[in-house]
Design goal:
The chain is mostly helical. It has seven helices and two strands, in the order αααααββαα.
Length: 188
């Protein structure tokens, strides 16, 4: 399986899932309560839901640009800053959905082999704290890009669950129902 075949469908289906969780929060809670979720955290030293949404989007953006060997656009720095400052300015559910939609549009424009250049090409991945990881493109996708994406996605899920949004396993894997064998769904 190529990096494009692995990453693009994974990011796409899970970002659509994340958007669906925000829809459920909005449908299940009074408007002000649903909007206040964006400032909710699992622990005081963790980023809020608004950041988790944006950082999940950041991971998809960064993977696309890094694996294509391209410089990050200014819009990615804006998204990062928005996420870092979401504790003070969480934005709205509509703005969170917009960020997800922008990321989905980026992914939709990725060609069928656009991320597959050289799987052994080395990527120097620098963190804001000064640490630098040297990884092959394949290692970057497997050991950083996907785990970091899922970390932010799962923290978002946990925050929503912790604030009484009714989400279950089926809400986590709605894309799997495309593969469901007919007549095997258990009766409710």
């Amino acid at each position: 399986m190529s990096l494009t075949q692995l990453l693009v469908p994974t990011y796409t289906q899970m970002l659509k899932t994340l958007s669906g969780w925000l829809d459920k929060a909005e449908a299940q809670l009074p408007s002000a309560e649903a909007e206040s979720l964006l400032a909710a955290r699992l622990a005081s030293d963790m980023f809020p839901l608004a950041t988790q949404v944006r950082f999940a989007c950041v991971q998809a953006h960064e993977a696309v640009y890094r694996l294509r060997g391209e410089a990050f656009p200014a819009s990615l720095a804006e998204l990062l800053d928005e996420g870092r400052n979401a504790g003070d300015r969480p934005g709205s559910l509509a703005s969170a959905r917009t960020r997800i939609e922008e990321t989905l549009a980026l992914l939709d424009g990725v060609g069928p082999a656009a991320l597959d250049g050289e799987p052994e090409r080395m990527i120097a991945h620098a963190l804001p704290n000064g640490m630098i990881f040297d990884l092959s493109a394949e290692q970057y996708a497997r050991d950083w890009a996907l785990p970091q994406f899922y970390f932010h996605l799962m923290i978002a899920y946990a925050i929503l669950r912790n604030h009484k949004v009714e989400l279950g396993k089926a809400d986590y894997i709605p894309h799997m129902f495309a593969y469901l064998r007919p007549d095997t769904l258990p009766a409710q």
